[in-house]
Structures are given as structure tokens and as C-alpha cells.
Amino acid sequence: MQVDIHSGPSFALGEITLPPGGAVRVEAGAMAMTRGDVQMTTSTRGGFMKGLRRSLGGESFFVNDYSSERGGVVGVAAVLPGDMTRVALEGSGALLVQSGSWTASDPGVEVDSTWGGGKSFFSGEGLLLLRCTGSGDLLVSSYGAIRPLELAPGEVMTLDTGHVVAFDESVQYAVRKAGGWKSTILGGEGLVTDFTGPGRVWYQTRNSSDLVEWMVSKLPAQRSS
């Protein structure tokens, strides 16, 4: 996948160049523009039930496949302001992506929301994990900038769950409370995740749950009659 990322890290736009005969799979609603010879086909990727399971995993029920006979460009953008990055899969491992971050991928990459290992990962955050396998590139997006890290074998790092974007399946993870009940309630922290290497981890500099809470705090108070 040839991708040029512009206007990051605040308002990133990914321009995917399709060679003659090339194709790319894009999350429904993520297309911002097309240029040249580009055709779009909408599907549920594998039938009605598989599309339904993807929607339960936090992704759209539908995906759009863009193809080109003579070559063209597809521009994609995420819902929230932030960055994008390209991640390569070589077929020997899997990448786990938080449900709102997958934006586009090569047709050779399988995005599975039925994988049972991630259904409770973001409990309390309203997010799930998608397991991406196969060979090809993915384009993942974030709220805020994306920070990539490489963990050595046995190296541990801790992230607030709302800041996780993606990580290699080789990385072990465990979700826990940030502290005792006092820290959880009064300290403003909820769940955190301990990651243990080896492998790659990508995290975002902002938390969309914090944005929602801030917006709610600015809404006029409801008065009972």
C-alpha cells in the first residue's frame, strides 16, 4: 500500500495510491476523496452475519472496496482529529487494533472482530479489539498523535486503556485498575493495561472518553419540572 499522510498529527489525511489493477479496503464513511480511475463496491465482507459481528465489534456493518483499472488515489480520514500511521503485516503474526482505529488495509489483510480474546479488553471504555492477520499494510488512526514503541523481551509498560491504538500479538497484556478505590475514584484514573514485550505498541496522545466527559460537563443542566 502506497500511502502519503498529510496534515498530521492533528488532522491527518491518508492518500492511498492505487496502481493499475490495485485495490484497498476502507472503513465505511472514512473516504474523503477519490481521484482518477476509482470504483467503489460496498459489502459486508463475508455475508450478513459476518458483517453483523463486525458491527458488534465497534466497526461499521459495511466496508468499501476501492479498485482501479488504470490507477487512482483514495483519500481517507478518521472521525476524530488526530494522526495516522501505516503498519506492515508479514503473514507470520497478528496485529491487535482497538476497534475505532482501523481505517484501511490491503485486501490481503483479514480483520476479525469475532476473535474472543479481545471482547473484554476495554471493559468500561466501550471499545473492543480487532485481530488483523495476513500479508499487507494497514492504515490505523488515532485521537491525537500516535507514538510507536518497541518493547524488548520482558520489558513492561503501562497505558491507560483509552490511549491504546494497536499492538503485536506477541505482546502480552493484562488489564487492571489504576490503583485502589481511592485512586480510581478521586485520582481520575480507571483501567490501565500492562504490556510485556517483545513486540510493537502504538498509543495515542489523547483519550476520546475524556473528550466525551468534557463535552457532557459543558452541557446545560437538566432541570426537573
From TrEMBL:
Q: Name one Pfam family in it.
A: AIM24
The superkingdom of the source organism is Bacteria
Q: What are the boundaries of the signal sequence?
A: none
Transmembrane intervals: none
Instruction: Note the PANTHER family from the entry.
Output: ALTERED INHERITANCE OF MITOCHONDRIA PROTEIN 24, MITOCHONDRIAL (PTHR43657:SF1), TRYPTOPHAN RNA-BINDING ATTENUATOR PROTEIN-LIKE PROTEIN (PTHR43657)
How is this protein named in the record? TIGR00266 family protein
Q: Which organism is it from?
A: Nocardioides koreensis
